Every structure is written in structure tokens, then in C-alpha cells.
Amino acid sequence: MILIISGTNRPNSITLKVATLYQQLLASRGQTSEILDLQDLPLDFASPSLYKSELYSQAFLSLRKRVADVSKIVFIVPEYNCSFPGVLKAFIDGLEYPGALRGKKGALVGLSTGGQGGNIALSHLTDVLHYCGLHVLAQKPRFPYIHKHMQEGQFTNALYRQLLEEQIEEFLTF
């Protein structure tokens, strides 16, 4: 089973739409997957209790377990202020270290409403994930001006879909 992390807690995000599309493409290949939407994080997860595991809420422990139980993770990552969202970093910081990500395989997809497609965000996140021991697939599609290339949960740009499908094929054998 593959876990797809929608890398923002922003309501009605394009990120979640891309995560859902990714899940559909995996299903068309007979692959099971689940989406972990960071909107589901408990409101107080980033309080000082983030650094005291004995204070974790049951909701947060449940999300951590979902990460612990898989061997492959896809991160759908929007670009926020020339990096990835702080909520994603806080979530990663709250995972069991070093066991949660070490030795697992990961794929990254970058999104932005600007022209870079999240290039710097993916670079920053790759550094963090490598430190945590996650093996990151080299193929990282980036989708600039994403808001102009999605309609009804689907890409309107054929190249975007092709790049996502190519990444999925690589990731399945990674």
C-alpha cells in the first residue's frame, strides 16, 4: 500500500486534488493507496506537546501510525514562500525518529501557482527526507501555474498527466 501525503492543511487545496488524481492513477494500475490529508491534523498538534510523545493526542498517534505502516510514500508538495509548507515540516518533526521514514521509498510532486513548479520546495524537502533516511525517487515532476492547468480534478495539460504517469511507473518499481 502506498501512502499519499497532501502536503498542506489549506482547505480546498489544489494539492489535495492532485493527491486524489495520483490515487486514481495508482488505482488504474491495480495499486492500493490512501491519502493522508494534513487538514486532518489535530488543531493542537504543533503545540509544545509535539516534543513530548506522551502528550500526543490519539488523532495524531493515528496519523503517525499510518506513516509507520507503509513502505512507500508520495508527497504532493505545494510551494509556500519559496519552500514547502511549515505544517508539513512540523508533521515530519512529529514522526517517530529515526524509524518512521528510514529505509522507506518516497516520491515527490511539486506544485506552484508561479513559474518554478515548486523546484526549491522539493529541494528543501528532499534534504529533510534524506536526513530522515527516506530514499527519494530522482524523478520529481513539477507543475508550475497549477491553478491554470486543473479542471474538475483533472489536468488540462497533457504533459502534466504524462509526467505524473511516468513518475508512477518508476515509483512502482523503485
Automatic annotation (TrEMBL):
GO terms for molecular function: FMN binding; oxidoreductase activity. Pfam families: FMN_red (PF03358). InterPro entries: Flavoprotein-like_sf, FMN_Rdtase-like_dom, NAD(P)H-dep_reductase. SUPFAM superfamilies: Flavoproteins. Residues 2-139 form the NADPH-dependent FMN reductase-like domain. GO terms for cellular component: cytosol. This is NAD(P)H-dependent oxidoreductase. It comes from Rufibacter latericius.
